[in-house]
# Entry
Amino acid sequence: MSWDPIYLWFIIPAAIILSVAALYGLKPSKKSKAESPFTEALSCLLAGDKKSAMEKLRQVVKEDTDNIDAYLLYGEILREMKQYRKAIQVHRELTIRRNVKAKYQVDIQKSLLLDYHLGGYHREALKYADSLLKMNKKDTWALTKKLSILEELEEWHEAGETAKRLQSITGKTDKTQLALYKCMEGIKIVSTGKEHDGRLRFREAMRLDKECALAYLELAASYIRDERPGDAIAIWKQFFQILPDLAYLAMDDFEKTAFDLNRFQELEEIYRGILYKDPKNTRAVVALARFLDRKGETDTAIEICQEGLEKSPESLWIRRNLFRFLTSQGRFEEAAQAGLEVLNMVIKEKEEFICSQCGHISDKPLWHCPKCKRWNTFRF
Ligand SMILES: [Zn+2]
# Structure
């Protein structure tokens, strides 16, 4: 059997119509006979006239009750029109017929899968995906559909297994995706109160993808819920090591927990560690400076901000904090300088006029845009 590329099924019925039209369309012209109703139906569809197409197809099956192509197409039009129940009815009727050629069996099942899936009957759709896979274990179309059905059903374990199979057939390994399925599985499990079982999934996700941020965050959150803050801190530390650029996602929780445990002395070391690995991490600069300020070491906080600005001069966030620290220390002249720098960054020295249509920027007021040639598009 042949399997269609996935995209073919997304542009149904256009693709089918075109190919079948080419097949059927040539015959009558040779004999210069009138077009068959089936060809007429295809022409109607190409012209976007679904109603007439359906009428023609009804005519076709009245004359030839074994014309499976016509039934399939009729059902597909119904599905296109979001009349899923009716599409299912038409396609199901084909399954109880006898003497339907084997080549149609696959098409019928595929149609039913799509009818049920798009109609929101995912459990039913799943049955057809499985039955297609029974016929051909390597049917990537069916596997892809099965995967999206399982995602709808939030059956993450099965989804992960299906993705794995798909990846092994297509040869495209994507551990990141597999790790995310594991995380989703874990999240679903912890939502039922089984924290320990969930954590095992998060650990598995980390094994699949060392850089799976979600796994670290969820694992730490689970430890917090289980009143094991020390374990949560250990996970966050690992997270900061491996993904310093994403460290900010956990900084607030980490700080709060560290303070609760009276382990705030570790914060400084950790923030410095992040900055060592990722000197342009403006969030770590601010976190470290704020911590030092809280500890009463505001002068050091100011130095940290100034050093941070050397690496990331564009950071307004560092500048704002620098301004605050300088003010609190009574270093007003420096504060004024820092404030002015912020203002210079956000406000241009000269007046600017912007075309509301194309975004053209001009330093002179204009009533006729030189770029998009429209009139009166500049707001004053
Ligand atoms: Zn313009």
